[in-house]
Amino acid sequence: METKANYVLIGAFTLAISIFGLLFALWAANWSSEREWNNYRIVFNEAVTGLFDGGSVRYNGITVGTIQALRLAPNDPRKVIADVRINAETPIKVDTHAKISQDGLTGPTFIQLSGGSPNAPLLRSDDKDVIPVIATEPSALQNIADTANKLVTRLDKVLSEENVRRISASLDDDIAEHLYTRGQ
What we know:
By secondary structure, this protein is α/β, with parallel strands linked by helices. It has helices spanning 2-33, 140-158, 161-183; strands at 37-44, 56-59, 62-72, 80-87, 96-102, 109-115, 133-136.
């Protein structure tokens, strides 16, 4: 009789702990969803390789929100529109800028917010149907790609057919002159 009582007591205790854990999880989920969020739009003029729905938005390295949706701009497919949800306590100012960033060489890609002077007004919209737009700046990867393109263009000009002929002719003249002066 005594062993059955222990099994009932252990079962009741396990059931109570399970119910308590479930209620705590529901409360925690409700608490986190009740946080206030502000929606913003970011329009990138570059590829957003590595970004994804649900990815993080960081302000000076601190995670402050998530990417809700990514899509091409309907009027200009060269642009990518990112709709983001940011914690309402985050001070997004009119001079805050967004760029694409990455953790190290192989880490995840995210949207990095920076700037925002203390005296600048908050970025808000008076109309609830209009989503405020955060300005963008080129990412470091975009700057490297632009510089590489400029270097290739300059190298193409230096190594044009005409310049190669001129250099070859100049070298031929130098070699001929060298042989002529050596022969005397």
